[in-house]
Amino acid sequence: MNNKQLLKKKIAQKELQIKKLHLHQNSSDVCNQLYNTLILEKAILKKELEELEKNPIIENIKKIIPHKEKLICDYFKS
């Protein structure tokens, strides 16, 4: 099993845990804290999966090509 499949499986497990805990979220502070922790862990796993799915060649090209960000003040220059 490769890393992407493993991360997808972990994300699915977190979603299942979140669904089960959602009913008891408001019952106590411990449940609420655990619910928030699971949400955070799921977000971290999703970010890791997103990083794995990026094409490294395209990312390197993006770093090489200069990219000037537009500021709001740039629109008001005469």
Describe this structure in words.
- It contains three helices and no strands.
- The chain is an all-alpha fold and 78 residues long.
- It starts with a helix and ends in a 14-residue tail after the last helix.
- The model has no long low-confidence stretch (mean pLDDT 85).
Helical percentage = 55-70%
Strand % is: under 5%
Rg from alpha-carbon coordinates: 20 Å
**What is the number of strand segments?**
0
Tell me which oligomeric state these chains represent.
single chain
Uncertain segments of ≥5 residues (pLDDT<50)? none
Number of helices: 3
For the residues shown, what is the average pLDDT? 85
Class of secondary structure makeup = mainly alpha
Shape: flat
The string of secondary-structure elements, in order, is HHH
N→C terminal distance: 58 Å
Write the layout of secondary structure elements.
Blueprint: H1 3-22, H2 29-53, H3 56-64
Helix pairs in contact: 1-2
What's this entry about, in short?
This protein has helices at residues 3-22, 29-53, 56-64.
Record keyword descriptors for this entry.
single chain, 78 residues, mainly alpha, flat
